[in-house]
Request: fold
Amino acid sequence: MRRHLVWLRADLRSLDNTALLAACADASTAVACVYAVTPRQWQRHDVAGVRVDFELRTLHALQERLAALNIPLLMLHTPDFATLPADLAGLCQRLGIDEVHANRQYEVNEIARDEAAGLALGELGIALQLHHDQCAVTPGTLCKGDGTYYSVFTPFKRVWLQRLASAGCAPASSPRRRREAFVASDEIPATVPGFASHVSPATALHWWPAGEDAALERLAAFCSEGLAHYDSARNFPDRDGTSRLSPHLAVGSISPRQCLNAAFGHVARHGESADSAQWIAELGWRDFYKHVLTGWPRVCRHQPFRLETAPLRWRHDDADFQRWCEGRTGFPIVDAAMRQLQATGWMHNRLRMIVAMFLTKDLLIDWRWGERFFMQHLIDGDLAANNGGWQWSASTGNDAAPYFRIFNPVTQGRKFDPDGRFIREHIKELGDFSGDVHEPHGPGGSRPSLLTDYPLPMVDHSAARERTLAAFKDMKAAAEFSGS
Ligand SMILES: Cc1cc2nc3c(=O)[nH]c(=O)nc-3n(C[C@H](O)[C@H](O)[C@H](O)COP(=O)(O)OP(=O)(O)OC[C@H]3O[C@@H](n4cnc5c(N)ncnc54)[C@H](O)[C@@H]3O)c2cc1C
Reply:
């Protein structure tokens, strides 16, 4: 009897899993899954403890589902991507594996890891079969007429939608049950040393139930209650206006095809609307940033997409950065957002834009510091989307905000949290504050209030704006001077 191994990575589900289905194609093949715990690598990749906790809980749920299919789930403990290929090959040898199947990841270290694993397995005569699964449209397959990659979202989205219409995105089914399991499942650890979650277990369980059943329930609830109001609600952080599926999409307890299929089903039943079009477009952004990462791998290496912005003189001020991290900038919408991240491991999209813009444009601090802090604290940390969001805000990315478009954090707060409900919920110093929560100390901190110990604004927004405009202009002038 042939034995196949499925190497699970960011695809922790039994339904619509391309590698799992390929491994199970022949009903008589025995199949096991393996997941690699690589703490040293996670440390290097700044994986957040809250995300590790979510992955482990997802694996628990998946193990039960797989057990019903007679597919055991094994854990491979190995320090990092350097040690992984030999350890995986050793496991395959011990288990008498004929083929290994895995879904591709598109980040540079993951690609190098897969190449090394392929070689190590190949020496034993075991084939590593890699499948495209992570995106609705395979990265690198949508190119312009001249064969180059799209770097702007709108034209990308147009061809992306055309591809979805022509090729479809129907999710695949579950694999068939195996006759028997050829090895016992391993115990899934409850924690991994060095990756304690900064979010309390009660909050994590309440906000982030794990596993594909939880993901499908969330998707169904969003499609029946949230999707019809998505366009008008999605920018308001005190409303439950977005799907909150990002943790599931990040670990793969749901696939983009399952999400898109549900959205297209909604369109078929209720007709097209700005709401469904916008949500589908958000899933397009997810594919787009994976596509950018495939076309411009330098974004995985801490380099700006727009190389001409590399000389920009970012500030590296630890004390200012710390105030941003802790949510003590004195700008309530920024601080409430940072405290949401600390409390729940997640942040609303509008707020991610506001805090990223504040760090890079009001404080002129290097976007890579913020990118890293996000990865270390987000339950849905994803290199492509996180890097894309940060480079958009810093005006160093493709299709980024122009450098002179600088959000005013007070205006943003007034617009997207008009009653201050979100601010009051997350900033306890302002919980009972009866004055203007958007400027508790008056415009620019001009009338310090004794009614709260909330900090004064740490910068003057107008002056900070001028400083950033000057930094970008200096960079441009220096580039013109040197003729680059
Ligand atoms: C600075 C910054 C950092 C970010 N870091 C991440 C990250 O590490 N991981 C992550 O998944 N998203 C990231 N995003 C994108 C976005 O904020 C989140 O995907 C979104 O807030 C998740 O909430 P939701 O699931 O309710 O989204 P919904 O509004 O319901 O959207 C559905 C799905 O579409 C995808 N999506 C939505 N917006 C974007 C976007 N702008 N870019 C890429 N995909 C998107 C997500 O997978 C999301 O779950 C970042 C955005 C910014 C501005």
Remarks:
- The domain at 307-481 is CATH 1.10.579.10 (DNA Cyclobutane Dipyrimidine Photolyase, subunit A; domain 3).
- The radius of gyration is 24 Å.
- The longest strand covers residues 30-37.
